[in-house]
Structures are given as structure tokens and as C-alpha cells.
Design brief:
200 residues; alpha+beta; 5-stranded mixed beta sheet; 7 strands; globular; disordered C terminus
Length: 200
């Protein structure tokens, strides 16, 4: 895994790589993400880049320990390999952006759902989703899409951190943000757009 990369706090509004971190951090439950090598080619077997959210470094480090202990990287790679590359020009060229979208949809319904159900049964303090982080370029390719594995703080952890003694029936903060815990089939909310936070 690459050395950790810190990112600025939420709030930037310019859609470039340097200033579009707010897109994947906009859901308040996000504590960090692993960036999958996506440029110039998608390489889901490549080295993952940890991206930290200011103020959540410790929580993300704890989540990464569990990620490594449970060998989730191998599971992620296996799940991605089950999604065939999308193509155009009669199959002669790979359509990387379409492939990324297909991976996001497939993993949301399969690997993410199963992993989050396991985390919920084990009372883990975080959940996962797969997010497409994108921005528009001033020159060259009009849009760049990056595949991220996002880590979300669970509602249980949030309440513990705030000193609450409430008894929870679920550890999920936001069913749309933590894709895969329910049987919903629409993963489009994780495709480079902010997710609705129903906790406020």
C-alpha cells in the first residue's frame, strides 16, 4: 500500500483533481478512502493509495488494520476480476469509464453488500462503499473517473464518540451511503455525487 496521502478538509467547489476532494468526502460519515489506480489505465490489482480525511486519521488507520487482517484487498481484486471489461469499436478498445461504472454497480450488489453484512454481524465500527470520483478537465480528456473504496464511520461509532449510551439495532449510518446493507438495487448515488445524509 502506498504512503498515506492527506487531503484538505471538505468544502472545495472547483471541479479539478486538486480541488475536487469534497466530492468523495461530502458524506459526513466518510473517514477515508483507498484510491484504485485508474489513470491512464484501470489497475485494480495495483497499489492502493490511502486518502485521509482531516480529523479522522486515527479512525481510518483502525479501519485499515481490519482491512488488512481480513484480507479484503484479495477479495476486492477477485470481485473486480468477475466484471468483464467494457469495450467499443467492435470490442477492439476498452471503454475504461464504462468498465469502472460496471465494477461499481457489480461490487455494490455483491462484494460490498456481503462485506457490510459481515461487518454488521461482527459489530464493526465502519462500513464500505465503492465510489466513482470524477472531475472535468480543462484540456485533453473531458472527464476523469477514479475508483475509490470509501470507509464510513458507523452510526454506533459516531454515537460512542459523542458519548451517547443509546442502544442501536443497526450500525449503519445511511443505507444509501453504506451500499449493500439493504436489498436496494440502485447504486447510482455513489457515482461521483454527494449522498444524502439523513442523520441531521
Amino acid at each position: 500500500m502506498s504512503p498515506k496521502e492527506s487531503v484538505p478538509a471538505k468544502g472545495n467547489v472547483i471541479s479539478t483533481r486538486d480541488n475536487s476532494d469534497y466530492k468523495w468526502q461530502q458524506q459526513r460519515s466518510v473517514i477515508g478512502a483507498l484510491e484504485v489506480p485508474s489513470e491512464p489505465d484501470l489497475d485494480f490489482s495495483g497499489e492502493l493509495l490511502p486518502r485521509y480525511v482531516k480529523g479522522s486519521e486515527s479512525a481510518f488507520d483502525d479501519a485499515l488494520e481490519i482491512w488488512n487482517e481480513q484480507k479484503l484487498r484479495k477479495q476486492f481484486i477477485k470481485a473486480c476480476k468477475n466484471v468483464p471489461p467494457a469495450s467499443f469499436c467492435c470490442g477492439m478498445l476498452t471503454d475504461k469509464d464504462a468498465w469502472i461504472k460496471n465494477i461499481q454497480k457489480s461490487l455494490t450488489k455483491g462484494w460490498v453488500k456481503a462485506t457490510n453484512q459481515k461487518f454488521r454481524s461482527e459489530q464493526k465500527l465502519f462500513m464500505l462503499d465503492v465510489f466513482i470520483w470524477n472531475w472535468h478537465n480543462a484540456t485533453g480528456k473531458s472527464k476523469t473517473s477514479i475508483l475509490l473504496i470509501r470507509f464510513h464511520e458507523s452510526k454506533r461509532q459516531s454515537l460512542l464518540k459523542n458519548g451517547s449510551s443509546a442502544v442501536l439495532s443497526s450500525v449503519v449510518l445511511d443505507e444509501k451511503a453504506i451500499a449493500g446493507v439493504t436489498d436496494q438495487e440502485d447504486p447510482s448515488a455513489s457515482e461521483g455525487e454527494p449522498l444524502k445524509d439523513e442523520t441531521s
